[in-house]
Amino acid sequence: MARVIAFAGSKGGTGKSTLSHLVAHGAGSLPRPIPTVVVTTDPEDLLAEGERRYVVVDGRSPPLLANQLQRLLSIDRLLVVIDGVANRSDVDQILAQIADLVIIPYGPSAQDGARAAANLDGMPLAVGVPNRWPTHPGVAKRAKRWLEMVPATRRLPLLRAIPKLDALLSPESYADIAYEIASPARGLILEILARAAVEPDELVEDRSDTTGLESLGIKNL
Ligand SMILES: Nc1ncnc2c1ncn2[C@@H]1O[C@H](COP(=O)(O)OP(=O)(O)OP(=O)(O)O)[C@@H](O)[C@H]1O
Ligand SMILES: [Mg+2]
User: Fold this and answer.
1) Which of 11, 21, 155, 180 lies in disulfide reach of 86, CB 3.0 to 4.6 Å?
2) How far is the CA of 38 from the centre of ligand 1 (A)?
């Protein structure tokens, strides 16, 4: 069985799509890369094209999503990342059933904090991730009350605002930022796998010990 993580929550730019791709990029950027697929489910989204360290597939209608999941879930040593669609409780129900971890991003605002807290109440096994969090001490101090709208036990460590992250979904710009965002991307996927109690090596392809290094251009000695 593949392992599944799903990004869910409200409409309005909390970071579901961006973090789905960031996590997949991180998984594909580990010293031993994890084969990873992002499933796009929002009918309003274009599929992110171009060569990437992961694959993007179309799940933008309920039958397509069901087909993709049926095909992907049976594959061993695969990470499936679902870029969820907001305000679709039918899709949320499916995600809650099949995902090893459901993640709800929320930004530094009262509205985002309240929505994330409400969504988490309805999904007992989901966690929040404070996203685009300010690092400047003064600003971060003010944002603390929004951070704490989600209990500490129900959230991952906060993720800062990462410059140029818009480029991640663009086929033309992905290659330009792939290297510089690899480090925060690896950090995020490792946090998520730890929280989901998934051992990264469990998902690494079984061909040989050197596969991951070779795909990064480092040859066996
Ligand atoms: N950690 C971050 N650092 C910098 N920019 C970010 C970060 N997370 C998200 N963004 C930016 O915020 C914007 C909205 O993010 P995104 O489209 O991923 O949200 P979404 O939850 O998928 O929205 P929607 O509900 O419309 O599908 C994008 O421009 C994205 O680049
Ligand atoms: Mg989106």
Assistant:
1) 11
2) 16
Q: Which atom of ligand 1 is nearest to the CA of 166?
A: 31
Q: Which residues contact 77 (CB under 8 A, 6 or more apart)?
A: 2, 35, 202, 203, 204, 205, 206
pTM of the full predicted structure?
0.92
**Which residues, in sequence order, are bridge partners of residue 57?**
39
Q: Helix, strand, or coil here: 31?
A: coil
The CA distance from 131 to 158, in Å, is 6
Residue 212 covered by a domain: no
Evaluate whether residue 133 is within a structural domain. Answer: no
39-90 pLDDT, tens digit each: 999 999 999 999 999 999 999 998 999 999 999 999 999 999 999 988 887 7
Name residues contacting ligand 1 (CB within 6 A). 11-18, 42, 86, 131-132, 159, 161-162, 165-166
Q: What is the dihedral of CA 214, 169, 190, 207, to 10 degrees?
A: -30
Name the pairing type of β-strands 79-83 and 3-7.
parallel
Q: Give domain status of residue 199, yes or no.
A: yes
Q: Given the CA of residue 162, which atom of ligand 1 is nearest to it?
A: 3
pLDDT in tens, 88-141: 877 888 888 999 999 999 999 999 999 999 999 989 899 999 999 999 999 999
Instruction: Identify whether 93 is part of a domain.
Output: yes
Q: What is the total count of domains within the chain?
A: 1
